[in-house]
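Hey, I was hoping to borrow your eyes for a little while. A protein chain has come my way and I'm curious about its shape. Take your time with it, there's no hurry, and the full record follows here:
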Amino acid sequence: MPETIFALSSGSVPSGVAVIRISGPKVRFGLETLVGFVPAARHASLCVIRNDEGVVLDKGLALYFPGPNSFTGEDVAELQIHGSPAAVQAVLSALGQLAGYRAAERGEFTRQAFANGKMDLTEVEGLADLLVAETEAQRRQALSQVGGGLRALYQDWAKRLTHARAMIEAELDFSDEDDIPGSVSDRIWSDMKALLEDIRNHLAKASYGEIVRTGFKVALIGPPNAGKSSLLNCLAGRDVAIVADTPGTTRDVVEVRLDLNGYLVTVQDTAGLRDDSDDAVELEGMRRSRMVAENADLVLDLRDVTTADPDESRIGAMSIRVWTKIDRLPASKPAIQQDIGISSKTGDGIDSLISAILDRIVAKQSNMSEVVPSRGRHVALLQSACSELDTAVGSGNVPIEVRAEYLRRAADDIGRITGKVDVEDLLGVIFSEFCVGK
């Protein structure tokens, strides 16, 4: 018989309330032993919790969720007790003494839910993202995934592929049956072309999904003493990077994660770029600066307004010129009329800079819902499915059996995203739609 698992599921103690979750075939036995009864399904019952020797451990609430209508699909119970370390440890120790009980491993409750068909892999990944969500955008995206948004989309695609394969299999294997219409496979290729376009459009949103999940990367690039570290400290609201007049103070990449209007933004301070250094460590820092700029979603090209040449070229198309130290702008120099001028010391222009960053983020997510591929695993499998579909659709002179194999591979790729690859679905379509064997 499978073991019954238990764990503290409400986070670290001390806390006002601690929730201990139990799941498995001996949940009722555990409740009867520690609580003395099994509460009515999905109703909270006040109880005294005792160990198997009758010693009172705590007083709290007990809830019982009979399977399969529970989170894991098995019998589940929750004990809501006082959140002191001593009370929690006492109850966990009592559960560990019960026959057939053991402490759960990391993620094991969710693994049981997946194994019992309560969640697919995209929902599992969404739950993991939801538990660590830092911003509103991350919460919305993760919640959509937990709610089955990606699952519904990918299941629809899997059904279309299954139907197409069933039409081909029926024509190949049962063409002598009177109730099998001829050349049914010819009818499915237009839908496969449409499906290929749907997947490609979905893949185009992958960059936004990754940005929401891992953060919009903003690189601070510029020559030494351009005010990069000062700007980082200003945005963070604390001293994160060392600020000094000595060129080359910043040698490595310094990162700060910010919540800007519900979006996670990772701001990266880098070593100043110059041509006259022969310091090996500083040269390595500049190499890393250029690499950060290449991988950033946005580059802030910082220039000291008191010394920089206004005609200097930008680093790249994905950059915004930012003039720093405008509080020191000499009266003889005109005010900034283009790009963005800021002072990290006085805060002037910082709101405009933040608005410009948010505009770039919004531009990337225009007309996009939260149902987007958010992980590299999704993207890799979708790209593979596209490749297989493209080959199947474009191979008109290839035998139909070979084209069907490409469709099978595409279906397997989609199935691996959700964790469901079921060949029985194919036979189900054939026998239900064509009445073969009557």
Observations:
- DSSP finds 14 helices and twelve strands in the chain.
- The radius of gyration is 30 Å.
- The chain has a mean pLDDT of 83.
- The CA atoms of residues 207 and 374 lie 8 Å apart.
